[in-house]
């Protein structure tokens, strides 16, 4: 017999809190076989904090499906509304780089939840890691789908079509790999909790996933904001996981040294990498030059300095942690006085022939905006960008090889961003080998944080820098045309380059392999290592002094 | 934008590359790349394919971020495997959400109709003690896959394993929430009894032992997929779900429990499909196929006896319901047939001396 309406109304709905209490009880302490400790950590764990999100999969899946419905509906609407009629190609071109990188760090974050789940003895948090794992699967595949969508609907698909190959080959995506591989290797807590959750997700996803969508909208791109704001709405879960995990290690005084090391390494490297990439895209990928628009440093001050550093990081000191306030100050100074983002963007534009996206020359509106937001910008960068514009037609030397006064930079062994703030470059030896670093903090990262011990205690779980870390070394002595062919950055006609230093969609104006033949590429670090001590000293002195654009 | 250019729409101009609108860096499995392949293939890079500079951060022992030696399986092309389910985030959420809605609706409707009070008392106890105990096995396997998805050698392998984890954890939670709802209507139902049985009742101890042994496997993700999906599931997991719950529930006035269990059976069909495809790829590898066959033989020698023991220990449960719909022996015979048929699908045999 059907239940009466009054009885139905009296029925209790699912209480998330009650449900969560039961779900966390699914785990048990094994007694027949101990779970393998698959991933190393030097951290110790104390009493369990609570997972304040209290989520269960029943409500989660429904909520995510609803979010997806909105995302995919918006993408259809964008096409019906002819979004690409008004979208700025300058912006979409940079999406070839951004979306070339980001799906890998996202899926790496999913993988890293295995590491936390393995080492953190807390069933409530393990439940949270499972949600994060599925979220990150969402992010990686939804971003790949967005990239495919751009490829299918934007005027120039070249660069999107080779995307994952390009990700493995490009000098710029190496920087993104340093970011993503940082989540999945070495000490499980260093990698997946501090580097990923406490710093990348808590501090920097706002610049990645909030500031970037805002700039996309200003450039007529409604698809990226729809997807990335939806992605960002999952981040509170991850920030919560991060904080819960941090509370488990914070209670052990033995961990404080390691936390100091890891927060320092993670903050500095996130600053170097995320600010380089997102800063360049937001400032140089936009056509929106409204004077009242916030600059990247304005956004950084709000999201990273105020919301993260002052409200989240600094208060951790009350637990006895040492926070390197001077590093936050140093990052701020690099962004403002050091004009870090502008120097990185200049480097990306210098390297245009080995990109897989186009970089549009700047115009007078751009110059005016930069000068207003960053007084002194034109004096330092204006002439170089004028050269870039003049040299953007085939038949000229590629700007990296033209005599404009620019000196191709050394690359930082730690963060893999070039040492663009010349006076900050540091050279040091580790295990008898010479390395270059963009900053003292990056030197410390390689030599101290990533060594076998820290403050006199062994740190056997810490990862190691490996591989052919410097892209330039791989192609030392190669001809530029051969490098581009080897990377596969050539269009289907077999001669026209994928990258172009302009937005002309016209074969007559596009560079081909013939235009870049005969330029020998040199690796700065190989050259530096080949020098005599005297030559090297002189070279470093000159490098610190910087360069003058003719 | 160039002066003459007024639109960024596809095909607005013709130039080199303007028609290159497909990802061109991998070979699709079929004639055309599927959406699943487009959003999956090569997202996890590989020095054997496009990772020019190799992995740039290693583990403390010098092993790369993804190390072949973590599994005994060898492959001449880790990227050959494609998940036949083609799951990515969009269809994953649609599927999981549909299941959750269906389960919630079934329970809600049963509550409104007062169905739970009509469930046979002996069967209520089976649900309380044994169906509830099984949620811990499902959860344990979900956590095994959660960790296995870190270490596979391609994005396709790891995403399939990730989805498997999501399925298992969802089902374990669904049982948990179902019991919570049941306990609202059946005041005598003890929600803690399942865990108590899981931890202490002899009938569940071999199942717990084998579940724990899967979590004790150190980094061999392929061993975990093989042992769970190709050995444990047909011999133990499916034996209990299909061979017992699905057979007995209706005769005891219970249509809700089978509706929930059927979602796990559908999950398993999918997870079996990817596991069969994955191991067919490994076992037919032109270079390493024979090695891989030997490896799977060793795994069978280790896990088949454990799973057979676990299955046999469950036997007393078949005699607990009031209506004897079928015998353990019938159910186990069907499980053996299923297991043999799975081995047939990947073209391997039970090692000599290993008895079912």
Automatic annotation (TrEMBL), chain A:
Listed EC numbers: 1.14.13.227
Swiss-Prot/TrEMBL keywords: Monooxygenase, Oxidoreductase
Catalytic activity line of the entry: propane + NADH + O2 + H(+) = propan-2-ol + NAD(+) + H2O
Enzyme type, top EC level: oxidoreductase
Keyword Oxidoreductase: yes
MF annotations from Gene Ontology: monooxygenase activity
Designated name of the protein: propane 2-monooxygenase
Automatic annotation (TrEMBL), chain B:
Enzyme class: oxidoreductase
Any GO MF annotation of the entry: oxidoreductase activity, acting on paired donors, with incorporation or reduction of molecular oxygen, NAD(P)H as one donor, and incorporation of one atom of oxygen
This enzyme's EC code(s): 1.14.13.227
Keywords, sorted A to Z: Monooxygenase, Oxidoreductase
Protein name, entry field: propane 2-monooxygenase
UniProt xrefs under Pfam families: Phenol_Hydrox (PF02332)
Record's catalysed reaction(s): propane + NADH + O2 + H(+) = propan-2-ol + NAD(+) + H2O
Phylogenetic placement of the source organism: Bacteria, Bacillati, Bacillota, Bacilli, Bacillales
Organism for this UniProt entry: Marinithermofilum abyssi
């Amino acid at each position: 017999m059907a239940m009466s309406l009054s009885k139905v109304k009296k029925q209790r709905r699912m209480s998330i809190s009650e449900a969560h209490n039961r779900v966390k009880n699914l785990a048990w302490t094994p007694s027949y076989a101990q779970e393998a400790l698959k991933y190393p950590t030097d951290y110790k764990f104390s009493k369990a904090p609570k997972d304040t999100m209290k989520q269960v999969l029943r409500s989660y899946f429904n909520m995510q499906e609803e979010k997806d419905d909105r995302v995919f509906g918006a993408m259809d609407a964008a096409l019906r509304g002819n979004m690409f009629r008004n979208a700025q190609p300058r912006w979409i071109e940079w999406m070839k780089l951004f979306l070339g990188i980001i799906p890998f760090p996202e899926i790496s974050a999913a993988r890293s939840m295995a590491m936390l789940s393995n080492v953190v003895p807390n069933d409530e948090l393990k439940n949270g890691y499972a949600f994060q794992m599925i979220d990150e699967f969402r992010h990686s595949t939804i971003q790949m789908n967005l990239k495919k969508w751009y490829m299918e609907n934007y005027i120039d698909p070249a660069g999107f079509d080779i995307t994952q190959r390009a990700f493995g080959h490009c000098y710029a995506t190496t920087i993104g790999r340093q970011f993503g591989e940082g989540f999945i290797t070495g000490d499980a807590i260093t990698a997946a909790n501090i580097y990923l959750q406490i710093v990348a997700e808590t501090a920097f996803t706002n610049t990645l996933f909030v500031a970037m969508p805002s700039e996309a909208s200003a450039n007529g791109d409604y698809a990226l904001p729809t997807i990335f704001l939806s992605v960002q709405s999952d981040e509170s879960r991850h920030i919560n996981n991060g904080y819960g995990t941090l509370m488990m290690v914070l209670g052990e005084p033995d961990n404080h040294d390691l936390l100091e090391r890891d927060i320092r390494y993670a903050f500095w490297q996130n600053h170097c990498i995320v600010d380089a990439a997102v800063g360049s895209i937001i400032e140089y990928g936009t056509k929106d030059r409204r004077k009242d628009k916030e600059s990247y440093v304005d956004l950084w001050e709000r999201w990273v300095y105020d919301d993260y550093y002052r409200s989240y990081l600094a208060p951790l000191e009350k637990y006895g942690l040492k926070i390197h306030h001077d590093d936050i100050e140093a990052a701020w100074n690099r962004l403002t006085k050091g004009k870090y983002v502008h120097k990185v963007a200049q480097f990306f534009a210098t390297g245009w022939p080995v990109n897989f996206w186009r970089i549009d020359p700047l115009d007078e509106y751009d110059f005016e905006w930069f000068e207003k937001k960053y007084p002194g910008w034109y004096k330092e960068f204006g002439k170089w960008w004028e050269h870039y514009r003049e040299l953007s037609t085939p038949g000229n030397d590629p700007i990296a090889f033209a005599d404009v006064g620019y000196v191709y930079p050394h690359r930082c062994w730690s963060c893999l961003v070039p040492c663009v703030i010349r006076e900050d470059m540091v050279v040091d030896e580790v295990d008898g080998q010479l390395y270059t670093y963009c900053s003292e903090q990056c030197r410390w990262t390689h030599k101290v944080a990533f060594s076998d011990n820290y403050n006199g205690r062994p740190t056997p779980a810490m990862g190691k820098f490996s591989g052919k870390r410097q892209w330039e070394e791989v192609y030392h002595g190669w001809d530029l045309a051969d490098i581009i062919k080897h990377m596969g950055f050539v269009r289907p006609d077999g001669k026209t380059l994928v990258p172009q230093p302009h937005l002309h969609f016209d074969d007559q104006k596009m560079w081909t392999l013939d235009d870049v033949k005969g330029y020998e590429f040199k690796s700065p670090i190989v050259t530096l290592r080949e020098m005599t001590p005297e030559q090297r000293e002189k070279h470093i002195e000159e490098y610190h002094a910087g360069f003058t654009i003719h | 934008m160039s002066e003459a250019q007024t639109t960024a729409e596809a095909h607005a101009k013709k130039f080199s590359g303007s028609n290159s609108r497909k990802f061109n860096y991998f070979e699709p499995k079929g004639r055309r790349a599927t959406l699943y392949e487009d959003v999956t293939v090569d997202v996890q890079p590989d020095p054997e394919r496009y990772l020019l500079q190799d992995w740039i951060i290693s583990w403390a022992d010098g092993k790369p971020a993804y190390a072949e030696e973590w599994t005994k399986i060898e492959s001449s092309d880790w990227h050959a495997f494609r998940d036949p389910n083609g799951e990515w985030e969009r269809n994953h959420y649609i599927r999981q959400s549909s299941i959750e809605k269906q389960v919630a609706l079934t329970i809600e409707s049963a509550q409104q109709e007062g169905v739970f009070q009509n469930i046979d008392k002996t069967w209520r106890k089976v649900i309380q003690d044994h169906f509830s105990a099984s949620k811990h096995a499902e959860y344990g396997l979900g956590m095994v896959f959660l960790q296995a998805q870190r270490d596979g050698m391609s994005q396709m392998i790891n995403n399939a394993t990730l989805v498997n984890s999501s399925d298992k954890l969802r089902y374990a939670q669904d049982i948990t929430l179902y019991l919570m709802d049941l306990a609202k209507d059946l005041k005598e139902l003890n929600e803690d009894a399942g865990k108590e049985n899981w931890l202490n009742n002899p009938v569940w101890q071999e199942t717990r032992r084998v579940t724990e042994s899967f979590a004790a496997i150190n980094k061999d993700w392929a061993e975990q997929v093989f042992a769970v999906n190709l050995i444990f599931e047909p011999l133990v997991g499916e034996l209990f779900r299909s061979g017992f719950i699905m057979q007995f529930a209706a005769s005891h006035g219970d249509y809700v429990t089978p509706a929930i269990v059927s979602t796990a059976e559908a999950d398993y069909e999918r997870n079996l499909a990817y596991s069969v495809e994955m191991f067919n790829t490994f076992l037919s590898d032109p270079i390493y196929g024979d090695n891989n066959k030997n490896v799977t033989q060793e795994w069978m020698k280790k896990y088949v006896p454990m799973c057979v023991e676990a299955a046999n220990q469950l036997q007393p449960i078949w005699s607990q319901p009031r209506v004897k719909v079928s015998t353990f022996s019938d159910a186990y015979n069907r499980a053996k047939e299923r297991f043999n048929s799975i081995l047939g699908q990947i073209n391997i045999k039970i090692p000599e001396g290993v008895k079912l």
